[in-house]
Each structure stands twice: as C-alpha cells, then as structure tokens.
Design a protein that fits this description.
The protein is 50% helix and 1% strand. It is mostly helical. Among the domains are: 59 residues, no CATH class; 64 residues, no CATH class; 92 residues. Helix 1 packs antiparallel against helix 2 and helix 10 runs parallel beside helix 12.
Length: 373
C-alpha cells in the first residue's frame, strides 16, 4: 500500500477526498474483519494478531480520521464554493457567507497561504481581474484581506438604507399571493435590519384588507411573526380557492340562460309532465298562441291649421258715418242725423260693453229702427 500523502503535499480539495477515502477504507476493513471472525473461529491470541495490521494502518499523529473513529463530533461536508465573477450570480453577499463558512474548516487549510490560494481559485472574470495583480506580487497576506478588498469592490454601502426604503413601501397588494409577499418580507426585513419586536405589527399592517379582516379576532394570540406568517399562507390559499369557486359559479350562471332558451315558433311543442309513459309525436301538445299585448298605436294627427280671418276691404277715407255712403263726411251728409247708438250698431266695438240701463228695452228700439228704415 502506498504511503498516505501528508496535508502539506496536497491542496484543500484533495484533503476532503483523502478524508472520505480513508473513512471508506476503514469501514471496508472492519467489515472484512467481522466476516473473517464469523466464518473462521480463532484463538483470542490470533485475533489480536489479526487486528494488529489495522492498528498500523491508522495515522500516527492525531487527525480528523482518528477523531471520527472515536465518535467525537465531526464536520459535515459543505457544498463546493461557486466562482465569483461580477457579484451578481452568485451575489457578493451570498459568496462571502459561503467562503467564510468554508474557511472556518481549519483542518482543510494547513496555513494562511492555502486559504489565499483557495479564495483566488474560486474567482473568475471581473473578480479574478482585480485579484491577479496583487496575487502576482504575492502581496496578499491573509484570506480576510482578500474578502475585505472584494467587499469594497462589490459591496453596497447603502444596502441597508435602500432595503429599509423598500421595506417601508412593501405591501401585499403588489403580489399575486401571500407566499410571494412573505418571501420578500423576510428578505427585506433581514437586509434592512428591522428589529424583531416590530415585525409582527408591520406584517399585519402590510396585509391585504381581506386577510387583515380574517385575523382580527385572533391577532392578539400571536406572539411570533413567524407563526402568523405560517397561518396566513393557509388563509390566503383558502381565500383564493373561494374566489375561484365564485368566479366559476358566476360564469356558469351567465352560460345557463343561453343553453336553456328554446326557439319560439308555431312548430315548438311541449311534452306533458308525466312519468312512466312514452309519448309519440301525435301526443305532443302544441303551444297555444296568444294575441300580442302590444298597445295599439295612435294615428298621427295633422298639425292644427291656423284660422285666417278674411281681411275687410279697405274703405274710402271719405265715407260718411251718418249714412254709410262715400263721397262726403258726416258733417256734410244731406240725410237726417241718426242716433249715437245707431252708429255704434253699424260699427260695433268689441271692447266696449254697453252699460245696462234700467227700464230700457233694446229689442223694441231695434224694431222701431227697422220700421223707420
């Protein structure tokens, strides 16, 4: 068997592979030992001699291999660190947190220079361009110095203030469901460093009116905003299911009248409302026709014709008011003078009413005038 390489001869990536391979080898040897003990019984002294090669295979120095075999807590293997390019995918904050978690596994890196080389190997594009000049000059002294430099390049000094402004303007009305709003609420509250004592009230104030109404009776019972958020996910789902059912019912009611309408006409017929009997065509009852109830239209009347009174022929300006003849005036009339009431009778004035005189008989007066003429 080839000797196990020392940590100084391998990089950070090969140390993890070495750890996994050593653990697998130990498990296989222990399984083989148990198989041999079951199949071929041996003396206790021979059994100790059989276990002696296994003891020699273990590293002489204290290492993670020995601690894992003895049952002490061991580190779980982390996911491989993605390469950082321009701080967008992955984001700088996400890459920084993953890199710091990786560097805390001190057994993976024998010295600080190994950490520097590891971080440089996990950069590409723009980030690698920034680190290369000082890497060539061998001026990076620690991994913390590299992370601080990259934080000045890709970090946002106003990130907290911008997140706080977005958090204050956040409302559920801008999202199609509560779950999407909930994810954004958790992200912005953490980035804006909102104190946990304010999150429960802020969550209630940012809800839609319907969800806020639903939690009014039980809001005082919630001590954590996380519990309220979990319950609101279920409330919102039920509410959207109810709204979808109501929309389907409204659509069905709009379609139903169109499907059940029967064409009107003399040929349409209706079956008698009986059961247990098959009707033939001759038994169909024709639908009675009723006279229309439309009110009769009135005949158009002609517009009123204005009354035109005949215009009297113009009289000569020299007409006598005494005898009625033309050619002279009343003062020159040769005939005897007539009474004033006789002149009024010849040319009556409709606006003047003759005053009633007590004891005056107008009919007798008219007869006397006829006799004199």
């Amino acid at each position: 068997m080839s000797p196990t390489p020392t940590p100084a001869e391998t990089g950070p990536a090969s140390l993890e592979d070495q750890l996994a391979a050593a653990q697998l080898l130990i498990a296989q040897l222990l399984k083989e030992r148990d198989t041999r003990e079951t199949s071929v019984p041996r003396e206790p002294a021979n059994r100790q001699n059989t276990l002696q090669p296994l003891v020699n295979l273990r590293p002489s120095a204290e290492s993670p291999f020995e601690s894992s075999v003895r049952g002490t807590p061991r580190y779980e293997k982390l996911a491989d660190l993605p390469e950082l390019d321009d701080g967008t995918n992955p984001t700088w904050t996400s890459w920084k947190l993953q890199a710091e978690a990786k560097l805390r596994r001190s057994y993976l890196f024998p010295d600080e220079q190994a950490k520097v080389e590891f971080l440089y190997s996990k950069t590409t594009g723009l980030a690698n361009k920034y680190l290369t000049p000082q890497m060539l000059a061998n001026s990076w002294t620690s991994a913390a110095e590299i992370i601080e430099f990259l934080d000045q390049v890709f970090g946002n000094p106003n990130e907290v203030e911008e997140a706080r402004d977005r958090y204050n303007a956040l409302t559920m009305e801008k999202f199609p469901s509560f779950q999407e709003f909930w994810h954004e609420f958790l992200h912005l509250s953490g980035t804006a460093q909102i104190h946990k004592s304010h999150l429960l009230t802020d969550l209630r104030n940012k809800l839609s009116p319907k969800l806020r109404t639903m939690i009014i009776p039980t809001f005082h019972t919630y001590a954590s905003y996380l519990k309220l958020g979990q319950d609101l996910i279920g409330f919102d789902k039920q509410l959207r299911e109810i709204q979808a059912a109501e929309s389907r019912n409204r659509a069905a009611r709009r379609v139903a009248p169109a499907n059940t309408a029967t064409p009107a006409g003399p040929q349409s017929a209706r079956l008698p409302q009986h059961t247990g009997h098959t009707f033939v065509t001759s038994e169909l009852i024709p639908r009675p026709s009723f006279p229309s109830r439309t009110p009769p239209q009135r005949a158009a009347t002609a517009p009123p014709v204005p009354l035109i009174r005949p215009t009297p022929a113009p009289q000569d300006s020299s007409t006598c008011f005494n005898c009625g003849e033309s050619g002279h005036y009343a003062k020159d009339c040769p005939k005897p003078k007539r009474l004033t009431h006789e002149i009024n009778k010849l040319e009556p004035d409709p606006t003047d009413a003759a005053p009633a005189v007590e004891g005056y008989d107008i009919e007798r007066e008219l007869e006397e005038l006829k006799d004199t003429t």
